[in-house]
Every structure is written in C-alpha cells, then in structure tokens.
Design brief:
four-stranded antiparallel β-sheet
Length: 160
C-alpha cells in the first residue's frame, strides 16, 4: 500500500487488512473517516475515531485518527487553508509516539474484523456504510471481537 501525500504519509499506528480486490468498488474518495458518533451504539460508547484507507487492490489500512484537539490547536495554515508541511510532520510524529489505549486497540480490532467479514461475504462491497453496519451489528448482538470471524457469526453479521 502506498500513500503519496503528506496527509496520509507513512502508514503508522494501524493494521493492514487484505481482502479480495473484487470487494473494493471504485469510490470518489478511498479515505474513510469513521467518527465516534457513527460507531457508537446505545450500549457502548466508542473512544476514538478511525481512519480507513481503502486500496483498489484489496489492501486496507485501519488506524486511529489524529485527535481533533491536536489539529485545532495548530493554527498554522498556508495560503489555501491547508496545514503547513512542518505542522503535518509534527502532528504525525506526535501521533506515532503516542501510545494506544486498550479501548482504542479494541475499536481498531473490531473495525478490522468488520472489514474481514465483508471480504469473506459474497458480493459485499467495502464502503463506509457497510463497515459501519457490520461494526454496529457486532456490538448490538454482543459478539466478541475474536468471535466475529466464525462462520456462524459472519452470516449473522452480514444479514440485514
């Protein structure tokens, strides 16, 4: 997987998921941001946002988002309103050096397994709505992260 911009840069603090390339449909934006409010259910609050970088070849990178407080605190922008290169490098360094909490690891693992479930499903495309659907169903049905990949639970999570 190769990201050619400063925004994505070196892929750190995440996990790579490999699914069949037929599960990835051409999208306008292959960078998805799953916000806390979208991931949360009635029974369990989510502690972090998740970034998903979807490659056309079936390689998908799932990582924790930069905290909003960090980006809001750095106000140095260029003429186009984009963060300056130095600012982005500093944010990336800080993000790479920050330890994951257990809750953040669990959120990323559940998101990774939701993508695996979609990759194993017949004729299921990976997009923001499908990832959120499987993620929320797994939480609502009380399925543990490690149990999401069993055949019975895959069927249960892919049903509407």
């Amino acid at each position: 997987m190769h990201a050619r911009s400063l925004r994505y840069g070196k892929l750190e603090n995440g996990v790579l998921v490999c699914i069949p390339r037929g599960c990835v449909k051409k999208m306008k934006h292959h960078f998805l941001q799953l916000k806390r409010g979208e991931l949360s259910s009635k029974t369990s609050p989510i502690v972090c946002d998740v970034d998903v970088l979807v490659g056309c070849n079936g390689f998908i990178w799932v990582s924790r988002s930069l905290p909003a407080e960090w980006t809001e605190a750095n106000t140095s922008v260029d003429a186009y309103g984009q963060p300056q290169t130095e600012t982005l490098h500093e944010l990336k360094k800080r993000h790479a050096a920050t330890q994951f909490s257990v809750e953040e690891r669990l959120v990323i693992s559940r998101c990774r397994n939701a993508i695996e479930v979609l990759g194993a499903g017949n004729n299921k495309y990976v997009n923001k709505e499908s990832i959120l659907g499987v993620f929320k169903r797994s939480v609502d049905k009380g399925i543990e992260i490690g149990d999401m990949l069993s055949i019975e639970n895959r069927r249960l999570l892919l049903m509407r």
